[in-house]
Amino acid sequence: xxxxxxxxxxxxxxxxxxxxxxxxxxxxxxxxxxxxxxxxxxxxxxxxxxxxxxxxxxxxxxxxxxxxxxxxxxxxxxxxxxxxxxxxxxxxxxxxxxxxxxxxxxxxxxxxxxxxxxxxxxxxxxxxxxxxxxxxxxxxxxxxxxxxxxxxxxxxxxxxxxxxxxxxxxxxxxxxxxxxxxxxxxxxxxxxxxxxxxxxxxxxxxxxxxxxxxxxxxxxxxxxxxxxxxxxxxxxxxxxxxxxxxxxxxxxxxxxxxxxxxxxxxxxxxxxxxxxxxxxxxxxxxxxxxxxxxxxxxxxxxxxxxxxxxxxxxxxxxxxxxxxxxxxxxxxxxxxxxxxxxxxxxxxxxxxxxxxxxxxxxxxxxxxxxxxxxxxxxxxxxxxxxxxxxxxxxxxxxxxxxxxxxxxxxxxxxxxxxxxxxxxxxxxxxxxxxxxxxxxxxxxxxxxxxxxxxxxxxxxxxxxxxxxxxxxxxxxxxxxxxxxxxxxxxxxxxxxxxxxxxxxxxxxxxxxxxxxxxxxxxxxxxxxxxxxxxxxxxxxxxxxxxxxxxxxxxxxxxxxxxxxxxxxxxxxxxxxxxxxxxxxxxxxxxxxxxxxxxxxxxxxxxxxxxxxxxxxxxxxxxxxxxxxxxxxxxxxxxxxxxxxxxxxxxxxxxxxxxxxxxxxxxxxxxxxxxxxxxxxxxxxxxxxxx
Length: 690
Ligand code: ADP
Ligand code: MG
What we know:
The protein is of the alpha/beta class. It has 4 domains: 98 residues, no CATH class; 92 residues, CATH 2.40.50.140; 192 residues, P-loop containing nucleotide triphosphate hydrolases (Rossmann fold), CATH 3.40.50; 158 residues, Rossmann fold. The protein is 41% helix and 18% strand. β18, α18 and β19 form a beta-alpha-beta unit. α9 runs antiparallel to α11. It is globular and about 95 Å long. The N terminus and C terminus are likely disordered. Bound molecules: adenosine-5'-diphosphate and magnesium ion. The site of adenosine-5'-diphosphate (ADP) has 19 residues, from α11.
């Protein structure tokens, strides 16, 4: 009995250990052999050489070999282990502040050892603190030792071993034909990858660290090529899908024309232009996949309404998804005002609706008794189905996670028939980025604002002058103007942010007793939110104290004053969106950015950018420069870094070549395409499609 338990316990412990290690590998994205092959070092340690002790220089890492002269545990004043190692040229002190007893035992006098670490000038001459020790009889390695990105509890030797195994067991043959490599002056794959994992001692280490070495260029090229290939495949996949063509009806008096006539304004030239592009796409037999970009306030909603009208005219349904309830509700109201008088039936769907009302809405969508469904994320839930979805529209698409966008794009896909897709965003994506990340997206741009807008004046005001701002608000209110007061972001806690909003609201009511003041935040019930927004829209509220729930989309043209408290805590895109809530009517609008000293360098630059420009494209450019593409595009949420090795800005030239090669390979060498994607993508293509 006893022996068998003992026998079975051991393997079980080993198994548990292996599972734990595997989990750590997974956390690093390492699942298959290919992943290990492409897990590249951050830096290297040179263990190929022994430096004579007399030649050591403080501040540089080195490896020495010598005999232990003595070692002892000292208390001066902290408990520490010290040893002295000696070679033919001199002595070096070694020191450990944290150590095990076994380490002390290892350092027996007379034993020959190697020590590696950074050399420092200590009180008693040169020393190494916490050096790594190894036996002197092992042969010196022939290559630099790689240091890989790792995670807690996963030691470098374990990673190295797994990567070595993968390098031995994986097919590393080249995915690119030699002719192509010659034409683009690309190093071969296998030697490149081997060099990066185990560089020979003579290699220019700086080139490796800065990723300028030809081996790095090949890896970056491969990564960008994989991206281009999968995007092209996604595009081809879409074109091979079928969509119901819904051409613009030539008949006079179609829904779109009637909508146009009913609008209280004329479309701008830019709006007409993008409406034309969308109308043409909708008439095709494969699904539209179009991004509509236009600065805050440029009038994207009405373009969405025109597209919806065309689809409804063709007897199909439309879904419109917005990121917040306030915005979705506003769209519902606005589209209803435009379209219901023309006989269109519209449903509203949000997570906070009573179950019965929600059921009615989903039934109406499924049975086709409504032609347009407007809602929040609730639209992509599993049980929501459509009778015949012809077009899905996503407003402020950058606010949604990749998964949600993907889910909506799959809604209404039946067999090979897929709905058309229109995405709208006020966050302009610079060309280089758009080209790389959204190759399967056609882009329309509204590049002018509706007429009669007066530019918003932006003022930077130190928080110490808050009272003056309050006085100004009171004055403006007396003249019939309306204002927003946006409460500071509290990153750490939503509850705290809420509390700040409530406190601010109470303080305002005391400070400005004559004003009608409202409060809106994310925790209010949908009906309450809707009621506050209605009251503000209809001029029953002078000052609306709000959290960032009003950040996107909210459209109350009479509001002409925007105050943002602790503006230094907000990101550029957010500030631009918030400022875009005003300047929508005829009165000159003002945006006050209240800030508190001291300002960090980044915050200072952000506020300066807001002061200097109101051009959304310019702001996006600066935002991108400050935050980098990952954060800018919100891909962080998806948990998938799109590019690990190439830098989209710095390696733009390589990206351009990768695009050329992708096109050529797709035409002439489908086998190479398959091999390349198998190495680099492993089924991650889906994420690029949204
Ligand atoms: P955004 O592009 O930020 O979503 P909206 O669609 O909310 O902008 O439009 C902003 C405001 O401009 C709305 O009040 C809308 O009715 C109005 N608007 C849109 N197009 C025009 C136009 N061509 N002329 C005048 N006002 C317009
Ligand atoms: Mg909008």
